[in-house]
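Holo prediction — HDE.
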Amino acid sequence: MPRSPVSSRPPSSRRTAVSSDPSQAKQAQLAQASQGNELPLPHLSTNQGVRIADNHNSLRAGARGPTLLEDFILREKISHFGHERIPERAVYARGSAAHGHFQVYKSMSQFTSADFLQEPGQRTPVFVRFSTVAGGAGSADTVRDVRGFAVKFYTRAGNYDLVGNNIPVFFIQDAMKFPDLVHALKPEPHHGMPQAASAHDTFWDFVSLMPETTHMLLWAMSDRTLPRSLRMMQGFGVHTFRWVNAHGDAHFVKYHWTPKLGIHALAWDEAQKIAGKDPDFHRRDLWNAIAAGHFPEWELGVQLIPQDKEHSLGIDLLDPTKLVPAELVPITPVGKLVLDRNPDNFFAETEQVAFHPGHVVPGIDFTNDPLLQGRLFSYTDTQVSRLGGPNFHQLPINRGVCPVHNFQRDGLHQQSVPQGHVAYEPNTLANGSEFRVDGDSEGFVTWPEAVESPKLRERSASFDDHFSQARLFFASQSAVEREHIVAAFRFELGKVTVPAVRQRMVDNLAHVDEKLARRVAEALGIHPPDARAAAGRAGFRHAEANLPLEEAPSLRMVGTGDGSVRTRQIAILVADGVDSASLKPLRDGLTAAGAQCTVVGPWLGAVRSASQRKLEVDATFAAMPSVMFDAVLIPAGEQGAQALSALGDAVHFVHEAYRHCKTVCAVGEGAQLLKGLPLPSEGAAEVPGVLRVPTPAVSTGDTEAVPAIVQQFVQALSRHRHWERPGLDQVAA
Ligand code: HDE
């Protein structure tokens, strides 16, 4: 008897039979769900379980005759295929996800009764989906865009979704403007261009008319929107939420996810090239890291503000265009997130996962942030149309680890088979016993915030400060980060075809930083920025807040991370005649430090080293260009260096890596590949991240020299990119 693809047991009974360890229970549940769809026997069947005798030929009238309508096997197969696609998410369509767990450092019971935050060491299974916002599901990973960072905690008290971004503020203050923002950002409706890019007329037209977008624009034009890896970006809850403890005491809370590996970015030119060379760059990186056991980790931290201190900071906590600098309210570590398992099936999990900021658990509550309030309606509504009905919570990836009991019934794709004749509450007929929910001490209780106000459409005057935090952000960046922001504004506004829009935008920027605005304007063929013109425009509201800080170093990216080079990608360039003896000790040292070395050559297979040994090649220059790596190592060997120098791809590789500010290390004659780069002559001050190593030190395996060189390399690589490197615009790569 073939096993039915769907378990005959009602899902509700499956749901109650959970292990006491929620991590194991979730794993078992998902494994069970995926097993249910596996055919245990080596035969094919229809969806009704009828065995298929021929999966190559449709039923036809004669070998060369017409296909018959009667062919129910063909019809079922083609029809199912025709309905394989579901609508992609309107925003955040391009996503990559992973399973993992969240582990508490120390109890948060003082602040929240949330079940999953009570005991040190407590683990809760999670599913995390990262995404870009603007692009379609098939768009490239490395476009300049905000990234979604959505975490589903399968807690024993119900599912909790923390649906955030990698930037701590948002463009708009009120949900009313979200459809306008998204319409302006998405491809222009008449010709459907550009894909996955904000660099076009409608986006800048809209944001230049909405000064409240300015703070987020500064973040969006910074390197934050070009993450090197999903494993190397922060996450934020963005809105202020509320934590409530068992005594009913409330705190405002802001969430921060901080990656162990630091916050790192790609160079803009690099990001654009990767979008063509490997559009799945981030997805692949996440998948490979987890598959190789390099599980990415983030620390969850919270800023807690007592309820009665709401107005003490001079920052309106309900305004999602504002953050609270860590310099004003420190971040308390709560626990760690570890992603340790790739999804089994992209569609069933990454696509069908349904997040919702309204999925909260007892101990966590909302605030009156008007953007958050608007989101609370939107997400269920979206899932109903995207996933085809109201029972999307029954999909394996969306099911909790705790039992679900209610009298919601029926609906499209209903998976459960409820028993009995009672589907209402209160009742006395179910099992002959009364079943009441009133006063369940573990039930969700909304924090009893006092609200009595006239109904009106009005924005609080405390939301009118649009520039002081944008200014703080810009002032807090390092010099190179500021340069990148200028360049990004120039690029994006350079794509805007209407001069008046470019002008309006730089006039707004003059309220952030006069020099920034001037430098952006210089490249755009418009008038110098005019802050007064901006202030005179309809819709311009601004009331300067008095921030007690001129700079907030916590808002910088440079210098973050634990200093390790784990999972960093190093290309070793080879051709016939390279010196493999001098290569080995360096390669071993770098691998021992956690970096991953790939031997890149002109062809797959092997090259012959100077000593006629076979040196395996992992990838070609064509398939793995420099943008796939974080650093380059060029081995010694006269003949090898000459062979590489004669290859345009190899020379380009080195020059491009230099231009993208990566660590470049040349051993002995390998330095010939550095020819043409704007480097000082030997002996002069070295260029950051360019190491020229004498051969003998390495080839003799000098026990002191080799570790010292490896250490130098590791140190340079751990700095990620050497953004301050001079003469970059002279490099033709
Ligand atoms: Fe979302 N958002 N959003 N959003 N959002 C969606 O839900 C929406 C907002 C965020 O990986 C949609 O299932 C409204 C802020 C993430 O599946 C949709 C408003 C933040 C994801 C939706 C916002 C987010 C979404 C599209 C303004 C950062 C991807 C498909 C009121 C805190 C989740 C879907 C995933 C997805 C609506 C604003 C984060 C349409 C109406 C602010 C990470 O329901």
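READOUT: Confidence is low (pLDDT under 50) at residues 1-19.
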